[in-house]
Amino acid sequence: MAKTQLGARVDEDVAELARKRAADLGMSVGDYLARLVQDDASGLRARAVDAAARFLAEHQAIFDEAEAEAEDGRRPDSSRGARAA
């Protein structure tokens, strides 16, 4: 497949994030950006965000309880964890 060069101006912090993330994934910046565009165009990113939102909505009470316990300095309820294991 032939490659086309694109040029885009972005803030330096965005460029640095792109470089770091591409390096973390062992990819070139161009390949990383191509993957982001493909994921976005295919709807993969939207489906992932929707799935995360559904997960949070279903389990929000657990997160709220853990946050409240952390703010109060209490330890989380260990009996629930024992049942989960």
Into which percentage range does the β-strand content fall?
A: under 5%
The major beta sheet can be summarized as:
none
So what's the overall shape?
elongated
Q: Cα distance, first to last residue?
A: 50 Å
Please write the string of helix (H) and strand (E) elements: HHHH
Number of strands: 0
Mean pLDDT: 86
Keywords:
74% helix, mainly alpha, 4 helices, 85 residues
Tell me what you see in this structure.
This protein has 85 residues and is mostly helical. It is built from four helices and no strands. Helix 1 (12-24) packs across helix 2 (29-42). The termini are far apart.
Summarize this structure briefly.
The protein is an all-alpha fold and 85 residues long.
Topology of helices and strands:
Layout: H1 12-24, H2 29-42, H3 44-72, H4 78-84
Helix pairs in contact: 1-2
